[in-house]
Amino acid sequence: MNIKLTKEKINLFTRIGLFVSVVVIIVLLFPKDKKFKYQYEIGKPWTYELITASFDFPIYKTDEQLEADRKELLSAYTPYFQYDEEVAGRQKEKWLNDWSKKNPEPPAYSAYVERKLNEIFKKGIISSGVYEQLMSNNRKSIVKVYKDRKTEIISTEDIYTPKSAYEEIVMNKPDYISVQDLSSYNLNLYLIENLRFDSITSQNVRDDMVKNLSLTSGMVQTGEKIIDRGEIVSPVTYSILNSMKIETQKRNTAFKESGYVIVGEFIIVIGLILLLTLYLYLFRQNLFENLNNLLFIALMILFVIGLASIVLRFTNLGIYIVPFTMLPIIIRVFFDSRTALFAHFITMLIISFMVDNPFTFIVLQIIAGMTAVSGLKDLTARSQLTQTAFYIFISYSVMYLATELISEGAINRIYFMPLAYFAISSALLLLAYVLIYLFEKIFNLISAITLVELTNINSDLMIRFAENAPGTFQHSLQVSNLATEAAKKIGANSLLVRTGALYHDIGKMINPQYFIENQVGASNPLLEMNYVQAAQAIIRHVPDGVILAKKHGLPDQIIGFITTHHGRTKTKFFYNSFVNDNPGITPDEEKFTYPGPLPYSKETAILMMSDAVEARSRTLGEYTEESISKMVDSMIDSQIADGQFKDAPISFKDVETVKKVLTEKIKNIYHSRIAYPELNKDIAVK
Fold it and tell me: Domains in the chain and their CATH numbers?
């Protein structure tokens, strides 16, 4: 089955892809392991709010306590030694065999020697090095492990080294045995260890002892007070706080690993982003239809959420250090207050699921966002952003102190550190100038700052315009004034329409002599052309204006005024003249019609009305209130009848308001003046 991809389907799939991408990225930005937000030291006062246990948790011992308990436990540790029961018999037999090879007679006193060897080997002999280690570690006993795995605990003092075993035989001999006789037996050669350290068993026993060491020293019950603001952090409290930190991180990790949590995050984010999408679709259709604008708003939201995620994940800084109000400020600069606030509220609701105390966070961000939008109606001067940043800091601080007073009930219990974060985040808002410039270039947007710069009539382009087409330049100034007043009355972007009006006719600079406002006492070259050629010469100023605008780097929004200020109207003078002079011949209407498109916004519609009215006003024979009003109604009504405003979101009420404004402004321009009396020269002035 072949699926035909139309432009509408591609746009739909692109928007769905953008929606899904934004949701997935936001969920990925959710902190998976929240950091413990408190910092504390033993002997220092607690600077945060009252802390009570929100769940049961054990009190973990400190590293020092664990080490002390470990040493105490291991002091009773008894090492294990394997006992070789066959060593005694082998060594006695070896001693007798070696003696018989050198002496025909059996050794004297062999009965005594054999008895002592049996006693010594039965108790056990260990190496001198191991014995010294036992003594240095204060091991008072060892565990003797027999061949059948039976064990016996014996005192360390009862075991021998080869040296002490030999001394035992020699020093405790009967009086009838001489030392010289015993020395001749070379018994020291046969006194070897029959107790060997069992490292594996000893280590296993040691590990089991350490493993069973208790890591806790008590429990904290839910609701139990831990510490209050101003109290000194004692060693005991320090241990409890550390325990709460460990358990909180464990619970957060287990909580975040749950698949249900991910599902919940997706539902929340999808719901909130869907609300923003519906708002744009229902109330800001022009923004929704422009994929560039959607991408810009999405990236702004992700940028702010990303900053919040970085602060929460990788720093111990307070969340309020993030300049959240940069979002509504920048969106307001490019679009409108309502869109800026809606995007800000949606973003802050998402971030509230990442932070502690979300209620206070939401309250502060709503107030700060409203302050940002209210204080920055139009960003036309550098001082405005600085003032707005100051107002935001004040609103943050006042509302935070108010909420703290409500929760704490006393000034001395207020935690003042967030005020520093508010100051830093407010100062960071000044970076919005740089971001606004970058976003203008990247997303082809236009800000009030740029519009103010473009309205400078002393720019090179405007000076050339005034020199090459002075009549058209004056016409543009008049249209600019008319359109600005009309835009103010119906709530349109007055600065945008003022700028668009200044540039709407710059195409006439190419051939200014074709236009009557520039023909001062000269012949009209259009009269030398046929009607089609003349119409095309007049229409040509629109594409010429687009070429000039692009050459001088004017934004697309301003170019839109150039292309739409005549919409799809006809050059009626030449069209009507052609029809009148050529009865029975059907004219090619396209050759007499401007290429368009039709006005697509309130601002472009206002310009079209203002341009037509200003041009027509110059042809009036008399300037009375009735004639002006009739002229304005006639011009705009004919545009409506031609369907020129069917693509513009402008209401009949707005049109009537524009008519009234244009009528009043034209009357003011062409108001009658008092005739000054001439001086009678016959009367002498004394």
Answer: 7-30+258-443 (no CATH), 72-211 (no CATH), 448-669 (1.10.3210)
